[in-house]
Amino acid sequence: MWGYVGRRLVLAIPTLLGASVIVFAMVHLAPGDPIAAVLPVDASKEQVELVKQVYGFDKPLPVQYLKWLARVSTGDLGKSIATRRAVILDVRDALTNSLVLALSSSLLAFALGIALGLLAAFWQGRWVDKAASAMAVIGVSVPHYWAGIILIIVFSVWLNWLPAMGAANDPGLREYLRHIALPTVALALIPLGVITRVVRSAALDVLNQEFVLALRAKGLVSRRVFTHVVKNAAPQILTVVGLQFGFQLGGSVLVEAVFSWPGTGYLLNLAIFQRDIPVLQGVILVLSTFFVLLNLAVDLLQTLVDPRIARH
Amino acid sequence: MAVTTALPRDLDAVVGAPMSYWRTVGWRLARDPATLVAGALLALIALSALLAPWLAPYDPNAGSIRLRLAPVGAPAHVLGTDEQGRDMLSRLLWGGRMTLVAGLTPVLVAFVVGTALGVLAGYVGGLTNTLVMRTMDIFYAFPAVLLAIAISGALGPGLPNTLISLSIVFVPRVVRVAESATVQVKSLEYVAAARASGAGLGAIVRHHLLANVLGPILVFSSTQVSLSIILAAGLSFLGLGVTPPAAEWGLMLNTLRQSIYVNALVPALPGLAIFITSMAFNLLSDGLRDAMEIRA
């Protein structure tokens, strides 16, 4: 098993490097001179020279990349064009807010999705199953940014129960929860659909195995059969849960834009609007690194839960 | 089935099976109510998008400041007007064109390019496989939304850039499915038999691999359409996709967002259109998967 763990760790390195190449390339993808992409329009001659020197644009691309990588790996993500602040500071604050939102929406989606999926599998073909299937299709089909707008219309405009946007300025828990409620629900829709679907089919797979029939034949009560099913479906459920959490972190961009939630998505949105390429690069690099490491953790955790995987 | 015509005579017996297989698939699809409803809905959406120039009662870009944000059911504007007084029905019809093009093209590109790359990597194996597959893995370092935004954010707004960035999102996914299906089929005995009896590489790929690999790839690609539509509209929603004043569902949702305090129903319409379209595609691909008996 440790051999497998080692191999997975080593395999993550080229993926991370590859991701960094893509992020590095973003400056060069931007139309026009790469210097123009990192400089304000009204930059003076000296500023242009300075940036050329700092970014090393006069050197060949591979050298530029290595220098950039060395700089970035020390945590120096450059400076924002718009605010002149170090990108790493903005990203750090935004990442905290995004993590909180990803966690709250994941918790909601996982709890509801696992419960719905299991219920649907146990009462296959009954109304619970049909409701769960409908929920699953709606969850994966709904544009979550639109769902966010609908939530605002209903709960902020019509009912006036919850604030429409932003995070609470005053640190009271009650206000904080009131602000995070709507984005949480909007962001939970997709994983709710995906998880319901996967949990249902994983549980059905286990239920159709002979040992379940044997357990029932031996007279085991439904409740005990249930624990056997959950145990056997756990690795598959764990995988989808882990992956979905990763998607939440990167996928919150649109929902954060709708609710002006001050996370990485909102920061990205601002950066796009101002064509602030260093911020764009910084946010995407940090998020993708997070995503790769999370997937790695899910993989390794899965081997712990289900040692059969490592033997392949 | 273009494949049938290209086949030599002695393989007719082999060809008979896939034909009846497709007939079975069609038979099953025609008897699944959810698929039929979804299919009819999609036909309606596609047709109304296609016929937008003739169906739309008004010029989608002509507004009147005096008629801003007319409610749904207003006289002369069945679905109301937007924040610039432009007729919503006309804009929704025209917008569907844009959204469908922006959503379907990337999946189509991914289907063609992904199948080619995946089958190549899967069949040739070795260094080619490692090279192709490891390159594709890199794109898996990003959640789909983030990758689309990263590339679009760097390239800047506009429909061509949206198509490029979304194609980059979907190609690696199709490559993975195509490669693993190819590797599976390649190891089957009848492929070895064909090789042993002297069939060339081209013949094996055309007659044996593609015929058996296209099904799973098609089903997988069909599951990606709804995501592609949501992402395409999402990029426009962020200001990275189609540029104003063009009518596009995501862009309409973005510009109408500020008006929910004045008129809540009209701003919800473009999103509803995205939702219905994406759900219809999902139901259709579910039906297709069941009918073709492919486990995704």
List the helices and strands and how they pair.
The complex is a heterodimer of chains A (312) and B (296).
Chain A: H1 2-29, H2 34-38, H3 45-55, H4 61-73, H5 87-122, H6 127-141, H7 144-158, H8 173-207, H9 210-217, H10 222-251, H11 253-259, H12 264-274, H13 277-305
Chain B: H1 2-6, H2 12-30, H3 33-50, H4 52-55, H5 88-124, H6 126-139, H7 144-155, H8 159-186, H9 189-196, H10 201-237, H11 249-256, H12 265-291
Describe it:
The complex is a heterodimer of chains A (312) and B (296). Chain A is mainly α. Chain A has 13 helices and no strands. The longest helix of chain A is centred in the middle third of the chain and has 36 residues, at 87-122. The mean pLDDT of chain A is 80. Chain B is built from twelve helices and no strands. In chain B, helix 3 crosses helix 5, helix 5 packs antiparallel against helix 10 (201-237) and helix 9 packs across helix 10 (201-237). Chain B is mainly alpha-helical and 296 residues long. The interface between A and B is large, with 51 and 46 residues.
CATH T-level fold name of chain B: MetI-like fold
Name the poorly predicted regions of chain A: none
Strand fraction of chain A = under 5%
Structural class, from helix and strand content of chain A? mainly alpha
Q: Could you give the order of the helices and strands of chain B? A: HHHHHHHHHHHH
Biggest sheet architecture of chain B: none
- Poorly predicted residue ranges of chain B: 1-5
Radius of gyration of chain B using CA atoms only: 23 Å
Class of secondary structure makeup of chain B = mainly alpha
